[in-house]
Fold these 2 entries.
Entry 1:
Amino acid sequence: MQVFPALADREKVKSCLTELADSSNAFKQALTAGIEQLVSTITPRIRPVLDSVGTISYELSEAEYANNEVNDPWVQRLLHAVETNVAWLQPLMTANNYDTFVHLIIDFVVKRLEVIMMQKRFSQLGGLQLDRDARALVSHFSVMTSRTVRDKFARLTQMATILNFEKVSEILDFWGENSGPMTWRLTPAEVRRVLGLRVDFKPEAIAAVKL
């Protein structure tokens, strides 16, 4: 009021500020569209490695589980594909834009992995393997970006937790009032579906669990 005592001047300033806000929004939209377009050119180069995970068995014996510890079946191949196609862009982007870009790549990877894992069958050791795989992914992607990535992998990690159970009823130790600090990202229907991926869990036992 003191700087612009005249009403006409105040209206002009308001108009300028509105135009600035509109321009800012337009630039943000253009930036978002540009990053999404960049992601769409990179993901087809990563997808073949992701799709090959569909051929990996998670019905593991102790010998197979031990062998996987020495000869990683797919995680390192996927991370190499991500690094090859993503990391070279880091010097060319601002830190904030690069973080946004990496997180969109992570979204793509996690979404595809969830679909693939939901189509598999697991032994208990296979559940342990998935937990090991998810931890390796979280560890690597955490180094690639300054933003937290753990929440991106929460559903996959929770699937691994369920697939690690000794018996179906163990879910009740982690569900509802017993969930503690854990926030479940899987719905009750999804939990039952994941339990059903274990080769040794009986359908009637899964159906009997009250979630």
Entry 2:
Amino acid sequence: MYQRIKQSIYPGRVEDSEQLEDVKIDNCTSNSHRGDESEYKDPSKKISLSNKVSDIFSYIFKGFPLYLASGISNSWFITCCFGIYTKHYLIYKVSKKTPADYNKMVKNIASNMSEKNIFFTKIFQAFANNNNLVDKDLFHHFIAYTDSVKYDPNEVDYNGLYDLINIARKNGDYLVIESEIPIKSGNIALVYNAKLNGKNVIIKYRRTNIIEKFNKSIEELELLVSISKKIPYLRDLNISDLFEENREIMTNQLNFLNEIKNINIFYEKFRDVQNICIPNVYSYFTEENPCAIIMDKFEGSRIENILHEDKHEYSKILSRFNLKCVFYDAIYHADLHSGNVIFMKENIKCKDENDKEILQTVLKIGIIDFGIIGTMTREEQDVFFTFFKILVSKNHIELSKFITESLSEKIDNSKPTISEGHKNILINQISAICNNVLSNDTKFFGGEEIYDINKILKTQNLQFSKFFCRVELAIAISENVCNYLATNSSYIEQMMIAFKDIFGNDIDELL
């Protein structure tokens, strides 16, 4: 099993890992016979110590170039990132410094950096979702870019793609792939239009080299995270904990069998919810070809194309989706950016008060891409429920107290527990930040607030808990989408309304 895992993750190092395994086996054999002198008297069974030493040194020196190459590669990666930023920043500085020049600089940096590491696409995607940080030009650019990640034709497994037709035929179905040109190209997979028995579906097919590319990107990201620990501002953002808590979630994107399991979980949870649509997935394709997923296609609009008058209703629907996920189902979509939300309209027949048949427009939201989801324990649900209850009550003192006592943990467990006096000092300091956020209807807890609070916590050997780090990204991404939709009221007000609709006004009894 270990060998198969190593082969799947590091396909280029199978020979080395086999040689290492042989050395380990031989050494175990040598140790187990050390007390039997007859073995040493028989030349045919004698194990040469010099040969074993030679084998070990041979392995070490054979593997050394790989480690050297890795070090050089990482150094080159850092140098390139710094060079890309410096180049385009200097070009901007010598320009007229107009908004158009600034946007051009950001676009060039984003494009060049994303080619170096696939996770930079996610970083710039976060900027796209946070419409407070970018103007409309950059917003639309990033939204389009994250669905049009560059790919090479060599990354397409055409044989595997067209073999899906045979898989469908064996199961009594008829599949037609409409074009070899993908309609979307993401970091992990390419997406194609198709028809299954005449019904519109999409094919999500994994890039051929993605495992190697993904592991290299993770290694480079680890390097950047380690560097962030040395930079004061970044150190207080808890990037290291954020990365460690989300590493496994990120890796799960590569496992399409896991993704169809996630889709089916959400499909069952929301099958009776009228205005939330989860795609039906045809699992037998993935079971036979784990590089592919085929699911129903949603026809709708992207977030930047919806009508202004529809935003408020879509915001209500999405708020209720998030609350049901967390408080009823103990799951959450960990990558709910705007590209994974399809905004749909459906005309349904109904009767008016005069019993006359009319067409009524119903707004719906389709949720896609379940490669990254999170789960919560009952204890975590209770913690988050209390956090949200205090948040919507806008009690900044209670919120700061809850953050200090329930959303933080020790950095160094060997140090003594914080005293009551120092705890009260922390609560008062954090309370000022909480009050600034809760008194402003257009603000929510973002990176700036998290940084400021974490900096205060660290003065007393505390930091945000790993649980909070685990859900922090998911909350932030979803919150940015809801903020874009919220027009008649703020995001926090929209969530408060949804919270009371679901749980009622007397929510204390539910704790």
